[in-house]
């Protein structure tokens, strides 16, 4: 019986899953959902680092405020639910910048609700913004990025996609789908020299989390989130999750048998008096 040569496995297990990024100056970045929260913080950080940043969201006035003091910003307001707007915006980027080095999907909708509060039309809208819009963006950018032979795709999911949690009845499943999508995108695109980043933040102080009435452990600012995300991409990480003291707890819950996990949730999340 021939001996299996495992010499090629050791270096592969020690190297980053994505290419390291050593310089942001001149990088062509398209931020979807850049008007507030993590998207706005990333926009400010990338502009400061000298990248050429395209800012997209529905609220043009907020994009203009972010870009006001920067000559390396391009504003392209549009609704991520508009399929034609995706195509025209991408074409403008191709005309102006000649391509993209990174696209980041930051747009999201969140409504805290238990399963009995969910309404079909609202659920469809959340899924369209959180999930379907990513597919629309990919359909537009991937052909050119593959022809270019380089680039990166970053998807902002959430630790809410790790396990089923009360109050995230639609948001959580949409983020779980993004985690799955990011994994398969990596398998498809890594051999084609395209980086894929899965970003799973914990609680970040934004317009979305302001809707929560419960205690949010390890709450971070959008600026802290932006620092963690950029650091993770520079290091070539695939999954960028933070803050680790919180996300590691949820990762541990993922591997517990359902009986144990449900018992813990029943103990800590369904206290008397909670809706």
Automatic annotation (TrEMBL):
GO cellular component, one term: membrane
InterPro entries given in the database record: NAD(P)-bd_dom_sf, SDR_fam
Keyword Cell cycle: no
Superkingdom: Bacteria
UniProt cross-references to SUPFAM superfamilies, sorted A to Z: NAD(P)-binding Rossmann-fold domains
Gene Ontology MF terms: oxidoreductase activity
One Pfam family linked to the record: adh_short
Keywords noted in UniProt: Membrane, Oxidoreductase, Transmembrane, Transmembrane helix
TM region positions: 29-49
Gene3D superfamilies per record: NAD(P)-binding Rossmann-like Domain
Entry similarity comment: Belongs to the short-chain dehydrogenases/reductases (SDR) family.
PANTHER family reported for this sequence: DEHYDROGENASE/REDUCTASE SDR FAMILY MEMBER 7B, DEHYDROGENASE_REDUCTASE SDR FAMILY MEMBER 7B
Protein name: SDR family NAD(P)-dependent oxidoreductase
């Amino acid at each position: 019986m021939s001996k299996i040569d495992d010499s090629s496995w050791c270096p592969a297990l020690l190297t980053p899953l994505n290419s390291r990024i050593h310089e942001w100056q001149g990088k062509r970045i398209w931020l979807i959902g850049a008007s507030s929260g993590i998207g706005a913080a990333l926009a400010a950080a990338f502009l400061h680092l000298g990248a050429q940043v395209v800012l997209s969201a529905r609220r043009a006035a907020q994009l203009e405020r972010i870009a006001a003091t920067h000559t390396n910003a391009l504003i392209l307001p549009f609704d991520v639910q508009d399929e034609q707007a995706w195509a025209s915006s991408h074409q403008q980027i191709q005309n102006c910048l000649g391509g993209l080095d990174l696209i980041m999907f930051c747009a999201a909708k969140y409504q805290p609700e238990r399963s009995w509060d969910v309404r079909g039309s609202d659920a469809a809208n959340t899924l369209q913004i959180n999930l379907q819009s990513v597919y629309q963006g990919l359909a537009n950018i991937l052909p050119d990025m593959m022809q270019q032979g380089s680039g990166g795709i970053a998807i902002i999911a959430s630790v809410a996609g790790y396990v089923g949690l009360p109050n995230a009845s639609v948001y959580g499943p949409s983020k779980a789908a993004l985690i799955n999508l990011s994994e398969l995108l990596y398998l498809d695109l890594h051999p084609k020299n395209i980086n894929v980043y899965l970003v799973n933040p914990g609680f970040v102080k934004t317009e979305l989390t302001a809707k929560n009435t419960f205690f949010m452990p390890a709450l971070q600012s959008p600026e802290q989130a932006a620092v963690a995300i950029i650091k993770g991409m520079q290091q070539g990480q695939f999954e960028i999750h933070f803050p680790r003291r919180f996300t590691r707890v949820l990762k541990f819950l993922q591997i517990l048998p359902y009986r144990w996990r449900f018992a813990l949730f029943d103990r800590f999340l369904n206290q008397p008096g909670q809706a």
